[in-house]
Specification:
Elements: H1 16-37, E1 45-48, H2 55-63, E2 68-71, H3 74-83, E3 91-94, H4 103-109, E4 112-116, H5 119-132, E5 136-141, H6 158-164, E6 171-177, H7 186-204, E7 215-217, H8 224-229, E8 234-237, H9 239-242
Parallel strand pairs: 1-8, 2-3, 3-4, 4-5, 5-6, 6-7
Bound molecules: pyridoxal-5'-phosphate (PLP).
Modified residues (N6-(pyridoxal phosphate)lysine): 51
Function: Pyridoxal 5'-phosphate (PLP)-binding protein, which is involved in PLP homeostasis.
Protein name: Pyridoxal phosphate homeostasis protein
Length: 264
């Protein structure tokens, strides 16, 4: 079975038991990948990605133990945050591109933002966070595949970008994030993860004070084992936990043409 053939095959999780089983299976895959490369499974955080699934299913995931959920779109995340505010220990990670006019919402409800790729967004977030009296964990998104359809900074632009971030004290920079090439071919996917790790090693030395590059968020349902072999500390997994999505992935990773005008 190739990498992404698995995707259509994940059955829908419809009970707490289904979620427990799927979470255990993913944790086992994480542990196996760690074992292969001599890593401690505790060094990899699983971020369950709940986009497109309804509140009822998110509540089942919560009952199965999920306390942090990843969402790609701000409006969808905010809607779910409001509907589920009775679960006071449930936190939200925004993992998709952000337009500056949505920074206010993210500053209000998110505990983590993984797709920082412009100073305009950094500035807007920082300003709104100061108003809210909050801080936010952020990851800088890097385009490691060279595809124009992917958001994220070009690898060679990241060093200068990091130098500018101490100006935004409400942002706690934790590391780098990437989406690999969407391909069934491991030989083309792995280099994206290698690039992110090497970039981190290179930039760590010169990172400004207060900017931490400990974390590497990379890998999803179809490719997270490869990402772990290459050093991922956060894997963002949706379909292997919730089941296959009806929505095409193009809805979340727009083509260059569909990119909003606010895009970089
Ligand atoms: C949807 C999404 C994921 C998870 O993808 P799955 O195939 O559901 O595991 C990971 N990262 C980002 C940015 C996403 O939008």
């Amino acid at each position: 079975m190739t990498l992404h053939e698995r995707h259509g095959r994940y059955p829908q999780a419809n009970t707490v038991e289904d979620f427990r089983r799927n979470l255990a299976a993913v944790q086992q895959r994480i542990a196996d990948a760690c074992l292969r490369v001599g890593r401690d499974p505790a060094s990899v955080r699983l971020l369950p990605v709940s986009k497109t699934f309804d509140e009822a299913h998110l509540r089942l995931a919560y009952a199965a133990g999920c306390r942090l959920l990843g969402e790609n779109k701000v409006q969808e995340a905010q809607r779910k945050w409001e509907a589920m505010s009775d679960l006071s220990d449930l936190q939200w990670s925004v993992i998709g591109h952000l337009q500056t006019n949505k920074a206010k919402q993210v500053a209000r409800f998110a505990s983590e933002f993984q797709a920082l790729d412009s100073l305009r967004v950094a500035e807007a977030l920082d300003r709104r966070l100061q108003v809210e009296g909050r801080q936010l964990d952020v990851f800088v998104q890097v385009n490691t595949s060279g595809e124009v359809s992917k958001y994220g900074l070009a690898p060679e632009a990241v060093a200068d970008f990091l130098q500018a971030l101490p100006a935004f004290p409400a942002l706690r920079v934790r590391g780098l994030m990437t989406l690999a090439l969407f391909s069934a071919d491991v030989a083309r996917v792995r280099p994206c993860f290698v690039l992110l790790r090497e970039l981190r090693e290179q930039l760590r030395q010169q990172a400004p004070a207060g900017i931490s590059l400990d974390e590497l968020s990379m890998g999803m349902s179809g490719d997270f084992e490869i990402a772990i072999e290459e050093g991922a500390t956060v894997v963002r997994v949706g379909q292997a936990i919730f089941g296959a999505r009806a929505m095409p992935d193009a809805y979340y990773w727009p083509t260059a043409d569909a990119r909003p005008a606010d895009g970089k």
